[in-house]
């Protein structure tokens, strides 16, 4: 049965691959991106997010079956928590009423294997508390200490997103409403964002040292898209609150054999 799926960050990379894959499978896809797509808007701006949600509702008749919340940035500044966490959560919440009208509503969000890397606990806690002003101020403090420290803006935003997914998954707003919500945590992926990094031996070595992928190495965007496509399918009828690390084995190297 054809489904209507919203995909954010759909103009390139993982988002485009996911949208293409879903459409090839017969689904109707509403592509959302900053400057090009069926709906355009800035997910770092609350007013723009509200307008995006309204436009999606108008285009779909007020009902969607799935959301792939993929849009994000890797900036070592407060832009990462602003878009990767605050903007993503706001859009999910804005679209939740449209999902409740589906017979099999599903959400899949792009997190990152960076969830498992060093992060700033203060920033993570502020994001999860919903204190956006303080969180962005903390992000600016980290950015001012240089890109190495500022990277915590990215890893912390992804960790907060992963925790939020697990926090809301079993609640009345999601589980009791029939909405399954999961996250996909990519490791090394060949996209436009990483093209220059993987173009040189030095860059590939640097990436491998930071996030090794012993199983099949660097992923293609289509590898991640395939997981998103399953998670928003009607067939995914029991899995919720999971963060699936599609990272070539980095998770197991980082956390070992303990399931926690």
UniProtKB/TrEMBL annotation:
Pfam families: adh_short, adh_short_C2. Keywords: Oxidoreductase. The keyword Oxidoreductase applies. The keyword rRNA-binding does not apply. Belongs to the short-chain dehydrogenases/reductases (SDR) family. This is SDR family oxidoreductase. It comes from Brevibacterium picturae. The lineage of its organism: Bacteria, Bacillati, Actinomycetota, Actinomycetes, Micrococcales.
